[in-house]
Amino acid sequence: MIKGYANRILEVDLAARTFSFQPLDDEIARLYIGGKGYGTRLLYDTTKPGIDALGPENPLIFATGPLNGSLAPQSNRFAVVCKSPLTGGIGNAACGGSFALGLKKAGLDVLVIRNQSPTPLRLEVDGDAGTVAFVDATELWGRGTSATQEALGKSGYHAVIGPAGENQVLYAGIVSQERIAGRTGVGAVMGSKRLKAITVKGTAKLEMEDEEKFKAYTKWLRQHFRAHPVLGEKLRRYGTMGIVNTTNGRNILPTHNFRFGHHPHAMQLSGEYLEDNGLVGVKSSCIHCPVACGRDVMVDGARVKGPEYETVALLGTNLDIVDIKQVSEWNQLADDLGMDTISLGVTLGFAMELQELGMLETDLAFGKPEGISAMIRDIAFRRGLGDDLAQGVKRLSEKYGGWSFAMHVKGLELSAYDPRGSYAQGVEYATTNRGGCHVQGASMYMESTGPLTINPQSLRLKAELPVVQQNLACALNAMVLCMFSTYGIIPAFVHRMDPNSFLYRMLVGAFERSGPMYRWLLGLKVRPLLWFEQWLTYITGQTFTSGHLQEIGARIFNLERMYNLREGLTGQDDTLPPRMLHEPTFKHLHSGVPLDSLLPRYYQIRGWDAQGVPLPRTLKKLQVRV
Amino acid sequence: MSITVELTYDLAKLLGTRHLELEGAATVGDALRLTRVHFAEQQADFDRLTRVTALAVNGVLINHRNLWATPLAPGDRVSFLKAAAGG
Ligand code: SF4
Questions:
Q1: Which of A23, A39, A346, A401 is the least buried, fewest Cβ under 10 Å from its Cβ?
Q2: Which ipTM was obtained for this model?
Q3: Ligand 1, from A289, A311, A531: best to mutate by most atoms within 8 Å of Cβ?
Q4: Distance between CA A485 and CA A288 in Å, rounded?
């Protein structure tokens, strides 16, 4: 048995109301770590091709990794895996809050929910007693995520859905405390099972191979985090909204349904503006995280949960609205109803453009906040036009037209970084298995927003960077660790460099030209260097290096790819919305992302054929069994 | 010829305005010089707040172009930028 794991999987059948505990498969854990990796392997192995994502055959898999349940900063996150009702391909989402800790305390690595209940239900898992109670949840059905968690009380750790999940809004999420596993419609799958909430409790303790070293290292690391310019300063002080002015200045802030990348008044949505105007209430964090990037916002004297960058961009500038109080209210509403604000904002923006072009009759209009709150409720309860909007932009464009400005990849709405000013991010959006998402690699940090950014509009490194970043993100989501941890990799001195200095430009130039060398370096299996490599090594007793994580990440990525191919997606789906390919937003350019020039190289680096299918030798090398 | 300068949050706070409309800036170097004039009474603060600040013209960093010699055209937007992290 590998240390760091509870060595227990709980399988629950909602139709038969039965459950069983199984041992963890050490071989899968060794190859895929846990979290998203383990979950994807289970999904692939235990489902038939072509199942209905909202049908009983689709399992809902909650998975933790060896870091969860430890005191490692940013490590209390869980992954949810299933077939996505939004994309028809791999569905997954990660979430902070407290549920990951709860699962580990209950002595569970993985919780698999199968089948559907005919009536609203909630589960109470007592890990110590080894019991699962199937409790009627009729009383809770229809309640928001806050009221539901309140009603469940303080005993145990909860994961719940709101009305959006109950009504199978295709971008509904699962909520733990104030955090949401938002993407790909995992909440709709939970709703299809009529499972309102899961409560887990127990007193199990995480066993580590070398607890002493882990503790000493983590203590030291917390200090490093506190002193780091991003983790200890910017992210902590301004939250993720601290990036608004940067994306706006770089012309990649979605505005007017991604027609533009800049809004003249975006500053009013920034973290700095919030702080300066006394709008920041209590800062909040996921369990054991010293960064505390969450915050409440004061709206008319009342405290509401503050929005993230994605939300202020997509429910803000993307709709031509720069009223932070208004956006905060919609954010709170969407969270309480239990839906993903990224997909919501993009869907509303798309509907507004349809309206502007006379293709859809609605009162929704750019720059007009009136009617948005009511529409968000209509979406959650599937009323009137809300029923159409509940299905996301892909299906909306199939019904009303406008496919060229329907901002999605594989059916998943794009995040708030316009790839026309961030080509590697464009390749990442196009190829990421779950669709148009930014946290499955975050290449934009290395080309548009971070302290050391390569030229985002040259072709250099634009195929290599997404591969490396996607692999790393897959590995992090297997541990399961917050993606923001990677912001700490670039050392403090780089943040203090003058971006116009000779030395800085030399560094950027060398990085841009590193190409295969960059991948080779990161593929080395020398010794654990970064903190998550160290943690994994101390906890499990196995050695993890950058090379191991790249390999494991690539394995997970290829398995996800094989799942998508099995479900009918093809290389044709590795694309971007036509607006991103053909409509320029930069004065010196006449087009968008040159994906045609980048994709073949990306496929080649991945070891895939020209159609984007992993070659047998690639799968063999990575030990991906299909 | 008129161009717009977009300030960082800190600079905007110092000056009390987010945008400056400048006349007669043919290059980024000119724009920087003319912007500096607006901060005549806060030179030290201006220097401190721009020490690790990047400059972009219409969203493109000048260190990927001709630095301060990067030419400007009427209607261009010169932005002062700080690195940031979000998600
Ligand atoms: S950085 Fe933010 S999102 Fe990540 S673990 Fe910490 S509080 Fe949660």
A1: A23
A2: 0.95
A3: A289
A4: 13
